[in-house]
Every structure is written in structure tokens, then in C-alpha cells.
Amino acid sequence: MKKSAIYIHGKGGNVSEVEHYKKFFAGYEVLGFDYKSENVWDAATEFQKFFEPLENVTIIANSIGAFYAMHALSNKKIDAAFFISPIVDMEKLILEIMARANVTEKKLREEKEIATDSGEILSWKYLCYVRENPVAWKVPTHILYGEKDFLTPLEAMKNFAEKINATLTIMQGGEHFFHTPAQMIFLDNWLEEKLT
Questions:
Q1: With CB atoms 3.0 to 4.6 Å apart as the test, which of 5, 35, 105, 127 could cross-link to 28 if both were Cys?
Q2: DSSP category for residue 80
């Protein structure tokens, strides 16, 4: 039966990034998933529809793409997951954005949505959703994390990796967005090591 490796980009990323990962998955059909959803409940529907016909699936997911995958695919049989800078505590991230924008929970609850100066849209529905739907991920998972990730503190990533029994590789000096030549070499070496 055909094996598939599906690449899921992060915010601001695009499906063409899949080209980088094809060399690691000989014998696989390697595809990029160009999802359009901008919230977790729409992503659940979109992801489930895309993945439903696939079997023997491995996923490679970046940032919020990993967050969406964990919410949408927790009941789908996935052989393995490779997460690069995954968002693992969305509630904390939303609360931090609220604090920076001086938005209280009361105000957000009353106004439903608030645009911040940084361009983020805070949503009461989104905050409630992530609180009411904690991640329940049981897929064999490998996580790559940059020490200087500004979206997820190291302690939160360590706790999450332990909770889901994932391996955690930390790049000293690495960032949330792996993009420099040194970071990409580190990423490639990590992927090669975990695939052997």
C-alpha cells in the first residue's frame, strides 16, 4: 500500500515548501497540504476531508500547522509526526497577545473580536474553543524546537513533549522560523536521524 508524507505549512508559509522534504521520503508520495483555514474549527473540517482517503500517513508540520493537525487528526491513524516549532499551548499564546494589547477577558467576551495593533485578531470564540478542546495526541512524534522560539517557552515545550511521549530536539540559538542555512542544516540532520 502506498505511503504518504504530507507537509503542512505554518502561518505565512506555503505549499511549495514541500519540495525541501521530498529528498527524505524515498518511496513515499510526498504532498503539500495547502489548507485555507484561519481558525481551528474550520481547520478540523478541512484537514479531515483531505486526510480521510489517505492511509500509511506521515506528517511534517510547522508551527500552527502542527497545532491544527493535532486538533483535526487526533482520531486518524497517523504513522509518525515530525513537528517543527509546533504551537503547543494556544491558550497561553492568546493570553500573552491579550496582555500585550491590554485586552481583558471581560472586554474580549463582550466585544467577541478585537483587532490588535500587531495585526492579530483576538477572538473570544477561539479562546473558548482551545480551552474546551485540549490536545489529545497519541501519534509517535518528534519535535524540533529552536531555543529562541518567541512563541513557545522551552518549559512549555518540554512539558508538552513529555505529556505526549515525543522526542524533543533543541537547537541552541534556533528560532521559531527555521530558515537560515545553519538552521536548515540542523533541521535536515534532525530529520535524517529520526527517520533512520
A1: 5
A2: E
